Amino acid sequence: MNLLARIRNFLNWEIAPKPDPKLLPEFYPHLKAFRLPLILTVLVMLVGTVGYVLIDNFTVMDAIYQTAITFTTVGFGEMVPLSVNGRIFTINLIIAGFAVFSSALGILVTEISKGTIVAIFKERSMLYKIARLKKHFVVCYHNEYSIEVTKQLRKNHIPFIVIDPREEIHKWALENKYPHYLQAEPHAELAMLKAHLSSAKGLITLSASLADNIALIASVRLFEKEHFLPRPYYVISAAENMSDVEKLKKLGADTVVSPTKLTAQRVSAMAARPDMENLLEEFLYKSDNPLDMQEIEVPRYSWAVLKKLRETHIREMTNTSVVGITHKDGKFITMPKGDTLIMSESKLLVIGTQDGIKITRELMRKRVKPKELKFV
């Protein structure tokens, strides 16, 4: 280990992750048009150097210098007085230099106007940014649903990438403030690698086409197996009807949302209880609201296993309430009483402040009974 590496380890410096070089788009093939100006430049420099040596007996270094200042038309003048033949040769050299630079400038303007080189540099820059992401979500296909989803992810400070194969994604990214985006087919393996899917938390596919969602879910699950990932991705999809919901779940989607069903449930709830219309939006969906609801899994080694709910004193210690318990076998207990036993690997549905829920999760992960219970 060299000295720089030791210093880096001592100071706990982390090197910024970089994308795999194989994923970066190559711009060298697009520079082929500049080969002719480059060859002409070398050729003119060679002819000019030989000419000054033969015509006016310049040294090689002086000839190279005189050729360079003449070829680039910087106007430094003559190093030594030139003969008539030398001046005629110099005039021709200036014209040749002007022609070479004009052709190179024309090629540069043409390539820039195509936009290919600029697009390649933008994509390379984006891939470097994406390589630094961890536990992000990959949102596939831009539409009205993805716009609203990304707004909520941004409000909750959850990193995300938007992938869409259409060229308009660049314009949509600016309009909707997508910090990271890619123009690619989401189900392609190359797109998944570019999206740094190996470090992602999950994937959201919101295409209006059922075929697109099916192809993407299948591709993601296959990607997991081929790359031997330690944990499965959390896949969220959208479907128009209940039959499609069942299909997507069987293919591997963890959660399938049906906009039609959600709209019907919302309308019926408004009709039955108009005063409860905005309850969820006000207390659960707003990122700036302190009230939250989460599921907390009880590990096998937790001190709370086989304890009664009242014996844990969760409410007194964390100011949160357990409103439901899901056992390992899937049985759900609504509003559990104080004598309800907490089983191994059960999930507690807890409602309270975000800080209180965080403390509750830490409390359930302890192996030994907390000392704080003595004072409750």
Structure description:
The chain has 3 domains: 28-116, Helix Hairpins (Orthogonal Bundle), CATH 1.10.287.70; 133-257, 3-Layer(aba) Sandwich (Rossmann fold), CATH 3.40.50.720; 290-375, Alpha-Beta Plaits (2-Layer Sandwich). The chain contains 15 helices and 10 strands. It has helices at residues 3-10, 35-56, 60-71, 84-114, 116-130, 144-155, 169-176, 189-194, 210-226, 242-251, 259-272, 279-283, 309-312, 314-318, 354-364; strands spanning 137-140, 160-164, 181-183, 202-205, 234-238, 255-257, 291-297, 321-326, 332-334, 347-353. β2 (160-164), α7 and β3 (181-183) form a beta-alpha-beta unit. α2 packs across α3, α2 packs antiparallel against α4 (84-114) and α9 (210-226) packs parallel to α10.
Shape: elongated
**What strand order characterises the main sheet?**
3-2-1-4-5-6
The structure class reads alpha/beta
Give the proportion of residues in helices. 40-55%
* Name of the CATH superfamily of the largest domain: NAD(P)-binding Rossmann-like Domain
- Examine the secondary-structure arrangement and name the CATH architecture of the largest domain: 3-Layer(aba) Sandwich
CATH class of the largest domain: Alpha Beta
**Secondary structure tally, helices:** 15
Mean pLDDT: 83
Ends distance? 53 Å
Task: List how many beta strands DSSP finds.
Answer: 10
State the major sheet.
6 strands, parallel
Percentage of residues in DSSP E strands: 5-15%
Order of helices and strands: HHHHHEHEHEHEHEHEHHEHHEEEH
Number of domains: 3
Computed CA radius of gyration, to the nearest angstrom = 33 Å
CATH topology of the largest domain: Rossmann fold
Low-confidence segments, given as residue ranges, are none
